[in-house]
Amino acid sequence: MLVTSKSECKLQAVEENTGTVPNANSANALWENEHLSQIPFKVLRGHQQGVTSCQFCMSGERILSASKDGNSQLWNIFTNKVMQTFTSHTLPVTRCKISPDESKLLSSSWDKTLCYFDIETGDVLWRASHDGIVMFCDLSSDGKYALSCTDFNNTVKLWDLRDGSIIEEIVGHHSSTPTSCVFSPNSQRIATTSMDRTTKVWDLLSKKTTITLSGHKNIVSSCCFSENERFLCTASWDKSLQMWDISTGMFRSQGAFNLTKGHDGSVSCCKFSSDVQHLISGGYDCAVVVWDVENKCKKVVLKGHDGWINGVDISRDGKSILSCSDDKTIRLWNIEEADHIPAVIENRRAMGLKIVKCEKCSKPFSIAQLEDPADIGICVFCRLADPERNKLPYI
What we know:
Blueprint: H1 5-16, E1 20-22, E2 30-32, E3 41-45, E4 51-57, E5 62-67, E6 71-76, E7 81-87, E8 93-98, E9 104-109, E10 113-118, E11 124-129, E12 134-139, E13 145-150, E14 155-160, E15 165-170, E16 178-183, E17 189-194, E18 199-203, E19 208-213, E20 220-225, E21 231-236, E22 241-245, H2 251-254, E23 257-259, E24 267-272, E25 278-283, E26 287-292, E27 297-303, E28 309-314, E29 320-325, E30 329-334, H3 342-350, E31 353-357, E32 364-368, H4 380-385
Antiparallel strand pairs: 1-2, 3-30, 4-5, 5-6, 6-7, 8-9, 9-10, 10-11, 12-13, 13-14, 14-15, 16-17, 17-18, 18-19, 20-21, 21-22, 22-23, 24-25, 25-26, 26-27, 28-29, 29-30, 31-32
Helix pairs in contact: 1-3
């Protein structure tokens, strides 16, 4: 994104200046924000060491977090208080994930175990042991499988959620330590990232690696699918993110689209919004970046953490962002009014963009200043979803 030094100064003022303003939606919670800031935020403090993962859950009214203190915690988003603590690991928890029915949670740890908890009782339903550190874990959207990866033999494991039995063990899946593993939204594919600088997509039906991506120049730290499964985004220590169009197969001929100049350090995590309009990333530069997916550019940078950012999430309505950090805190950012920040508006103008409302979904989207809104009244996502787009005209 091209901005002038004057614009950068304005953006810095918006992002870094921090008084307390009341939350219009809840009298019980206060939003903290620095002087002149137009991005209100809350700071959740309760973990004793760095926070490694965070997730919205239970209709956006709760937050699930994991920490290097060995605990996972369930938070009330309105009171900023811990409702429940899940303790079963003796070493840092690398990630926790809530089940689709939100009655269970899965956590992985440096203590070489994977634990599946009952949220209501807090009991461990089953525990699975690994031969090495469990780097990451995930749950399938159909509620059938658990996934984990370990540094021992660079192995990825697929588990039966009912009893914790192994369904598949992929030994040597990467040539170096896996850094993350995630299910696709339809639970038919697994994407893994690694210190070997590659990302692999493994198919559950054929039990084969169907895609290998190797565009980054340093360790690939994490990845995420878009909800429509068109894009796979990868984050790397090379300070960039790459968006791969894996649905159409365009990545095979055109490669990935690089998102750069957003982070000053290694990028550690990423997450698409449910409508695929935004991509959120966190980095070791202590910054959270909101990207405009359609225009493939940086929209706004959120600063305030004092340590490496390890995880991010975005609410279903796209109005709130979560970030967690080595500074032992979780931050909840309200980005509902981000489009009205002067620096964001100025940056759009600098790119020659204007905002119009989609005639079908009523969501705002950007078009070039020279384009006529009368000619382009439907956003790219509605155009792609239109079944008529693939029909050939009659001659």
